[in-house]
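Long-time lurker. I teach an intro course on protein structure, and each term I like to show students one example going from raw sequence to a predicted 3D structure in token notation. This year I'd like something fresh instead of my usual example. Would anyone be willing to generate the tokens for the chain below so I can use it in lecture? Attribution to the forum is fine with me.
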Amino acid sequence: MALIPALALSGAAPPVFSDNMEDAVAWPSQSSDSVASSSRSVAGSVGRAVGLSYDFGRVSGYAVARRKIDLTLPANFEIRFRMRGRGGRNDIQLKLTDGDNVWWKVWPNRRPASDWEEVVVPAGEITFAWGPANDHHLRPADGIEMVVARDRDGGAGTIAIDELQIIALAGKPSAPTAQEDRAYHELAALAKATPRGTYPRTFLGEQSYWTLAGSDGTGLAALIDEDAAVEFQNGSFSISPSVIVDGSTFDWHNVIASQRLADNRLPVPSVRWTTPRFTLNTTLLADHAGRAAFAAYVLANTELVRRDYGLRLKIRPWQVNPPSQFLSQRGGASPISSIERSGNELTIVQPAVDGDSLARRRLTVEQGADFSPANRVPDFSTASAGIDVVYRLTLKPGEARRVVLTMPTGAKSPTFDSSLTDTLGHWRTALGRVAIYVPPTKQAFADTVSTALADILMSRDGPMLKPGTRSYNRAWIRDGAMMSEALLRMGRPDVARNFADWYRGQLFASGKVPCCVDFRGADPVPENDSQGEYIFLVSELYRFTRDRTALERDWPAVLAAARYMDKLRLSERSGDKSGPNSALTFGLMPPSISHEGYSAKPQYSLWDDFWALRGYGDATALAVLLGKPEASGLAASRDQFAGDLHSAVRAVRDHWRIPFIPGATSLGDFDPTSTTIALDPGNEQHRLDPAALDATFERYWAEFGQRASGKRAWADYTPYETRTIGAFVRLGWRDRIDDLIDFFMAGRRPAGWNQWAEVVGRDPREVRFIGDMPHAWVASDFIRSALDMFAWERRTDQALVLGGGLSGAWLAGQGSAIRGVATPYGSLDFAMSGNRQGLVATIEGTARPPGGFVLPWPFKDPPPAATVNGRRSKWRQRELHIPATGHPITIRAGHSASLDYKDRS
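-- Reply from a regular --
Happy to contribute to a lecture. Here you go:
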């Protein structure tokens, strides 16, 4: 970042605010958890200055020096100051505040200069950061802050500020275009001025979609988009194909493109271009062990005559990740500094994300290529500079040729063929521990469950479970705990255990569980669901693995997290609680932004509270199991918090005059996707008012129907909403689940890649931020709900409820079955087929739930006579209760003896 030279002050209007920074007492420092900071007087450019010292240690966070002010800002102004410092690259921020609202100017990844620099910040560069204000124009200000927030380097250092002034200016504020925006605008202008297909559709104002091909835990994460462009590494250049036949060029705009996965479920994605003259199949392969990534192009002549083709693979300075993606990193432009060629190996040199170095990315091309431009160096100062790798192929009718580009990650890489064999074998094994068998019309659902598991495994980096590899390239305890539950049920306790062991080392000394962790360390942002989620993770690991040694290691962290929850909830029980809204908040977790909808202003989110109550319950059970003396105290905290929580849930309906359970007691808002947590993992269904619970999800169902039918206007939704499938299973609303599934499955884009982004838009081509594709937390929600349809644990009686989400469509013909699914009581194989006249189900595996198995009758008609292993059994409220005394168990109802049932084993 180049700092703007200060304008001469001679003859200028008097400043509306000035501080010569001689008094450091007026600028006290604050810092986030485990970050050391201090403000003090230091030598200035003239006289004294205010110095802010910081030491991030091993955590993320910030250090801030804040001065209180009482100022009404003019319509246009600029802020001037002098700055110098020492230390590594971090974000330097200038903030102005007005109550809960914050405006800022950010210098990202900035290393402070050692000599005094003069800085001028025009009002147009100060943007609204967050807060509840609807009017984002900055007028009154009650504070000004200088902040250092950890970025690339962290460490310890100091910034010094001197001679700060706010100067009124004439005219209207204007802001220069940021460098990344300039690059985007240049590429967009070029795209509109050239034939369609020359540039990616994203630069033409159309939403694009992509998917991930990644290794299993080593961090290799390549992307391919629906139009066959490939991005081998995070933030790297992309490679796009085109085909030339008889002088005509074919690219993404004038072909029919289709997408699929290997075996329709394995994470080896491909894009097939179909034309009357040829087909081109582009496959992206990420070696499962992370040794290399490959792009394989198979061009086939579909005509009846011999043809000459040109396969042009265009290396260009933009990402597959589009410019509408802005979290963590900005998508779109990815400048190329130079391209070096040595034989069949190219080295593409690009600026590195740390700003201090260049990334040198090796690319091996198959022999026989021409390079264009061949005899000149491209002008890499332009936004579209790159190089073409061209293969001239003559193909007989029906003949096909393959060309492979390889990006190795080390000195040696396997061949494409050997890696393909190894990788397909690896994923078939990794995804085959749980098998789902369904009627042909439901096969895409079963395939998507397998792919969703792969998406979780590929998105992780070592022990870090991450929602994505670009926008969400960090680990959240919220996401990781729920992904871990999906992993445990799908037979991957090893991955969940590695995540828990790693996250345990990230907790703050206070017992606070960080909401998320990345390369900078633990994030200090308070999200008050975090403690409950961590305890839940530890508890689930023990319940599924029975590893007492690991639990003993985890116990101190569990206890510290529970005690931190005590500190939080007791803060809401102290002081004057006699106000009119006290019943809505008394004893709850304090306001936080753990719920994305409350990022503008923290709220009393029931999401936090149901997670905290689950955490208290699990901590108490673990303390009893381990014989810990803290068990009675934890039980008392659990019971007191449960009482406060349910009192608030009752009070909120009268206060807000609503029949449903809200998302936040402080808002009375309707958010059923959030409320699903009360049922699972919250396990509070039996203690909630049935009328309020029904009202919540009946309203959701009515609004869902209007949305699905087109009667209700909507722009987008988040596929976390697939949690409602599991909620409907628990509510016994089996006959409504298929409509939910059909709607959500239609939101996969492209459908052949079995994935969801974080946001699904009604108009597929309307540009919006959509989060990572795939989004691994969304994938885990889908897995959890899908498994619930076959078997879910009813904690009130420790029973496994079977087939609760399977309608008649799932039971037709050979019916549906699941094999190898893990439960806290052992593995389960379950199969069921039939109709209202007769049904047969079998239970096998090692699962022995203390409450036995429960089989609800799946049809509206009264249940017929039934037998369990040949003995008559009675229905109780349309359920068969089956003791887990031995396997196999065969249940027959009605005329099931006449059914031609086939074993799925």
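Some talking points for your students: Residues 716 and 760 are 5 Å apart (CA to CA). Residues 799-898 form a domain with the Immunoglobulin-like fold (CATH 2.60.40).
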